[in-house]
Amino acid sequence: MLLLISPDSVEEALECAKAAQHLDIVDVKKPDEGSLGANYPWVIRAIRDAVPADKPVSATVGDVPYKPGTVAQAALGAAVSGATYIKVGLYGCTTPDQAVEVMRGVVRAVKDFRPDALVVASGYADAHRIGCVNPLALPDIARRSGSDGAMLDTAIKDGSRLFDHTPPDVCAQFVRLAHEGGLLAALAGSVKAGDLDELARIGTDIVGVRGAVCEGGDRNAGRIQPELVAAFRAEMDRRVRQHAGQAAAVATAS
Questions:
Q1: pLDDT tens column, 12-54
Q2: Is position 157 annotated as part of the catalytic site?
Q3: Which of 55, 87, 111, 192 is catalytic?
Q4: Which residue of 8, 117, 208, 215 is 20 to 30 Å from 224, comparing CA positions?
């Protein structure tokens, strides 16, 4: 599993750089504009410059409305600013067809500029609370639109978590559908170290965190701490090794 960490400023990105060996992707967002709030282009550029060149930067385009042209321009802005992963929160799309239309525009805008960039269709585990597309529709939306990955996060940051809204067995189905479509699967949403056993069992490709590596576990008031990033990564790797060993034992026995 890859570890994605979400600083909310250049200063926090510098703290991430101190723990660069323990993380895989630095994510740029603006939490005060929503779960997948978009930050400024100059912040994306500054964070790209602040972290090691071999660490890809992802950027959220926002919790977007059903406005395909607007979203395509925003996604291109993120790519021009240096993001390798472009994540689009399909907040305002109420049907899969609307979501596919938005994502097709994003894919064309981004790939015309940078063919190697990775476009991620992002939905919400708590979609029932905001009226957007069902989480299990996301892998097919991503596949149909030519996106590279599908992601689940939580839309409303009120202390509830990924598994509170989308239980582990449903998340496992989400990951399976993504993999069957040849896509990356990413899971986030107030993920804690205690969730890593389930996430390793599920086999998601990317785990996204913020609060779990902030002082006091507070994604808003706390700041990212390099030692917490290192500890989270160590536990994540331990759980992945444990489940890989269990799977190998089962395969040998059969």
A1: 999 999 999 999 999 999 988 988 999 999 999 999 999 999 9
A2: no
A3: 87
A4: 117
